[in-house]
């Protein structure tokens, strides 16, 4: 049997990714590389990833509309926005469930990769805690108390969802864990030891390509937050450059650098829209 969502639609229509699809919906809900016994066909995972790596992802007009609304709000609140581009690959949401083992985070309406505001905030706080050499009281003032239930007080800065400035290029990548039997031994009654005699198991996953530009926006929550905006801009620059965003940052993923050209073009575009 095939999933209901294929039985009730034209299979020829849904059998191949098309430009007018919401890519996130397609990628997460219309996986069709199954074979008998609900196993995945040989190279099925790789084929599914490659179905969304040919060409740009996202409707430019919808992305522009979303950015115009977001940055209009940020500007009205007296906030700031900065354009940064990926130095290399960027991936977020690997821990999400998906038939190909590694998930991906998609914006629910735009169908493009993005970084949720909560993840953006967590990244900057983590950098401030571990590398920023910043007073703990100042960190708590800007980000709020750490941990649930400690206080009803919130931080002085609002962190918005990080969106791309235009359609995005995606790429396939692969990880090759060498000790899979050791990692999975909790599911087995036989105790296993990590060793070089195990065969590496290639696992493909989806990433954002290099040189893809995103907008990082913040705004003061009230009057006291206005004085924190300038210092946050520098913190964001340092955190994105040294700590990285998303998953696999320990091996170089998720590093960003300022995109001054995109910043100028975005400012001019917003002026024309206004």
Helical percentage: 25-40%
Number of strands: 10
Please indicate the count of domains: 1
Give the C-alpha Rg: 21 Å
Outline type: globular
Helix-strand sequence:
HHHEEHEHEHHEEEHEEHEH
Terminal CA distance: 53 Å
Q: Spans with pLDDT under 50 lasting ≥5 residues?
A: none
- The percentage of residues in β strands lies in 15-25%
Largest sheet: 5 strands, antiparallel
Q: With helices defined by DSSP (H or I, 4 residues minimum), what is the helix count?
A: 10
Mean pLDDT: 85
Structural class: alpha+beta
Keywords: Antiviral defense
Domain CRISPR type III-associated protein: 91-257
Organism: Caldanaerobacter subterraneus subsp. pacificus DSM 12653
InterPro entries: CRISPR-assoc_prot_TM1791 (IPR010172), RAMP_III_fam (IPR005537)
Topology, element by element:
Blueprint: H1 4-7, H2 11-14, H3 23-29, E1 34-35, E2 39-40, H4 44-50, E3 56-57, H5 60-76, E4 80-86, H6 117-130, H7 136-143, E5 157-159, E6 163-164, E7 168-175, H8 180-183, E8 203-208, E9 213-220, H9 229-243, E10 256-258, H10 260-273
Antiparallel strand pairs: 1-2, 3-7, 4-9, 4-10, 5-9, 6-9, 7-8
Helix pairs in contact: 6-9
InterPro entries: CRISPR-assoc_prot_TM1791, RAMP_III_fam
Pfam family, one: RAMPs
Domain CRISPR type III-associated protein: 91-257
């Amino acid at each position: 049997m095939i999933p209901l969502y294929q039985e009730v639609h034209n299979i020829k229509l849904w059998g191949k990714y098309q430009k007018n699809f919401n890519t996130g919906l397609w990628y997460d809900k219309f996986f069709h590389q199954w074979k008998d016994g609900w196993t995945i066909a040989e190279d099925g995972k790789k084929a599914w990833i490659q179905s969304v790596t040919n060409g740009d992802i996202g409707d430019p007009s919808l992305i522009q509309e979303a950015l115009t609304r977001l940055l209009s709000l940020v500007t009205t609140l007296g906030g700031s926005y900065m354009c940064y581009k990926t130095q290399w690959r960027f991936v977020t949401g690997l821990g999400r469930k998906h038939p190909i083992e590694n998930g991906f985070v998609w914006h629910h309406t735009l169908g493009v990769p993005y970084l949720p505001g909560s993840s953006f905030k967590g990244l900057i706080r983590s950098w401030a805690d571990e590398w920023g050499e910043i007073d703990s009281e100042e960190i708590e003032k800007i980000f709020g108390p750490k941990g649930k239930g400690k206080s009803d007080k919130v931080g002085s800065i609002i962190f918005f969802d990080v969106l791309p400035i235009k359609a995005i290029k995606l790429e396939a990548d692969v990880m090759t864990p060498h000790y899979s039997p050791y990692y999975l031994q909790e599911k087995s009654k036989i105790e296993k030891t990590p060793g070089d005699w195990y065969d590496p198991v290639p696992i493909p996953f989806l990433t954002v390509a290099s040189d893809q530009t995103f907008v990082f926006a913040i705004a003061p929550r009230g009057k006291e937050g206005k004085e924190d905006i300038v210092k946050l801009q520098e913190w964001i620059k340092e955190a994105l450059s040294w700590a990285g965003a998303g998953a696999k940052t320990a091996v170089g993923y998720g590093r960003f650098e300022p995109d001054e050209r995109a910043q100028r073009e975005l400012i001019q575009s917003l002026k024309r829209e206004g």
